[in-house]
Structures are given as structure tokens and as C-alpha cells.
Amino acid sequence: MARLGSRFGLVVLVAILAVGFSVPAANASLLGLNNNCGATSQPFAQFGDYRNYTFGTNGGLESGATGWSLAGASVVSGNETYYTHARSDSHSLSLPVGSTALTPGMCIGTTSTVSRFFIRGSSGSSLRVQVVLRNLLGSVIGIIDWSTVSGGSAWAPGPAIVNLDSLLGLVGVSSIQLKFSALSGTSQIDDVWNDPLSSRD
């Protein structure tokens, strides 16, 4: 199983911009939060997590790096072994030390709290995970410096990444992204999911 780093740094760096009431997006509330994020499933139920998640845009890298921002990371062959998105999936993301990757924006609802993904890594690998908060205009209004995670040699679900949208939505958060930074070794991630409405049973 993936292991949490010893540092649980929920350090919120909030640079508050306009709340964004004047530019509502389709299906969004006045705060910019979307209550219709699409179909959900329970991809982590076999691991005891019964939240209902939506699949992130190109969350399995099956469309290459489309929508992602990569620096030193690359799309490679080989899918997470549980095939939580589709049996036909065949790609994942490799992050050697020093590389970074930023996911496409993910839909959030008024009580959205958790994102998850699958991870594996070389011996001694570690991956920093941050949650990037954006408003309706696409501007960054905060970063949650969450923690570091480590993957073993076999694919396993990563930890539940708490993004605190239900609280930070009050300052205009409209979407989130996960940023991965490889601190040591080489990590691989795949199938990024987001719980848009804090749906834990």
C-alpha cells in the first residue's frame, strides 16, 4: 500500500482574488461550485472506501498528456492493475526525480473534499502532492501543500487527498488540480478520481 510521509502539511497559501460572483459558469452556483459533475462510481470500494467519485479529465493518461502540464514527466505504457476506469486502459504517468505534473482541472461541488489516485514507485521514491485551487476565471487563489506519499513496487491506491473545497469555496474556488512533484526515486501514477460531493456512505 502507498505510505504517507511523516509530514502532514496542510499549509494553505491563500492569495484571495475576486470571489467571482459576476461570471457564473454553466451548472455552477454563485460561488463557482458545480453540483453536476457527471456520472459517479465507487472505484475504491474494494479497498474500503465507498465514496462516489467522478473520473478526472484524462485521469488515466489514455489521451497522452492532453490537458496535463508536465515538466520532466512522461506518459508510459502500463496501467494500474485494478483497471478501475476501463479494462482497455493501457497508460500511466512516470515521474522521475525532479519532475512535476499538474492534472487538468477537476469538477467540485459544494461539499467536495477528497481526491484519490493509484501509485507505485521505485525503492526510496517519494512524491509531493499539492492541491491547486482556482476560481471561475482560472486564476490560482490558493495551494494546499498536502503531504508526501510513497508507492511500493506494486500498484496500490494512494491516500485520500483532502482538498477542503467545502470551506475554501467561500472565497470563490471553482475547480481544483493536483500537482505532483517527484522528490526522490521514480514514481508512477494513474487513474485520478475526485469525489465531487463528499459522498461517503
Report on the architecture of this protein.
The chain is mainly beta. The protein has one domain (3-195): Galactose-binding domain-like (Jelly Rolls). Helices cover 2% and strands 42% of the residues. It has 1 helix and 14 strands. The strands form 2 sheets. Strands 1, 3, 6, 7, 9, 10 and 13 form a 7-stranded antiparallel β-sheet that branches. Strands 2, 4, 5, 8, 11, 12 and 14 form a 7-stranded antiparallel β-sheet that branches. A hairpin with a 5-residue loop joins strand 9 and strand 10. The longest helix has 4 residues, at 165-168. It starts with a strand and ends in a 6-residue tail after the last strand.
Strand segment count: 14
What CATH architecture would you give? Answer: Sandwich
Report the mean per-residue pLDDT as an integer. Answer: 81
Q: What proportion strand?
A: 35-45%
Number of domains as seen in the coordinates: 1
Structural class: mainly beta
- Number of DSSP helical runs: 1
CATH H-level superfamily title = Galactose-binding domain-like
> Based on CA inertia axes, which overall geometry fits?
globular
What is the gyration radius calculated from CA atoms?
Answer: 16 Å
* Uncertain spans: 5-33
